[in-house]
Amino acid sequence: MATSPPAPVPLRQSLQINGRVVGALLVREMLTRYGRHNIGFLWLFVEPMLFTLGVTALWTATKSVHGSDLPIVAFALTGYSSVLLWRNMPGRCIGALWANLSLMYHRNIKVLDIYTARLLLEFGGATISFAVLAIVFMAFGILAPPEDFLGVAAGWLLLAWFGCALAIFLGAMSHRSELVDKLWHPASYLLFPLSGAAFLVDALPLAAQKVVLWIPTVHGVEMVREGWFGSQARAHFDVGYLLVFNLLLSVAGLLMVRWVARRVVPE
């Protein structure tokens, strides 16, 4: 006797189920990563804060030159926080599926849910770290408030979108090849000085400007700095270029996830 196919789940109910799944995975990831000892999940944003403070102190002590008269603390905060935002996301998603194969027995858990939970954690940690440090620096008079908060937020969100798309693409790729994990770490360190965090595009020679503006993160960092410093710094960026790049990378990432999801074997 033939059995009838299951009735389709309404979109609203499907979204609610997906939200509960991602929420549960997020809590599980926090407990697995940080545990309940010491300050627990607070490490989520304390860790990036310590990295940013360390780089800020180093750049201040060495009187690093960045091609403008912007305060070095403000320059380091907007630059290195941006790096932590997009660079940590791929690092957390690469190999994530291998570590969670046992969860794939649950029919409601999808490959993309594993990545989404980790990306939400990274975005939250980097954003809270950036906001807390900015508020503390402003409270002590070290940093002036941003001239255009929405401009800062737009640049930050576009950088986050780039990090998420790159992380999903590399995360899915890493399930098919271990080389992704081996190559990402040196690549991420090589990208750091080219990402726009350590220089202003306007301070570079014209030929160098044309080269670095092919790198999508440069546009996002320049947007953040224009929003924060306004007329104090002349920014160079193309929002349309960054949007198109992020969109194409997102499509490539989702196609890779779909391809991997059809070949996942739960353990």
UniProtKB/TrEMBL annotation:
InterPro entries, sorted: ABC2_TM, ABC_2_transport
GO biological process, one term: lipopolysaccharide transport
One Gene Ontology MF term: ABC-type transporter activity
Domain ABC-2 type transporter transmembrane: 22-227
GO cellular component: ATP-binding cassette (ABC) transporter complex
Superkingdom of source: Bacteria
TM annotation in the entry: 40-62, 68-86, 119-143, 149-171, 183-201, 239-261
Membrane topology: Multi-pass membrane protein
Keywords, ordered alphabetically: Cell membrane, Membrane, Polysaccharide transport, Sugar transport, Transmembrane, Transmembrane helix, Transport
Locations listed in the record: Cell membrane
Main localization, broad class: membrane
Recorded family membership: Belongs to the ABC-2 integral membrane protein family.
Name recorded for this polypeptide: ABC transporter permease
Organism of derivation: Qipengyuania soli
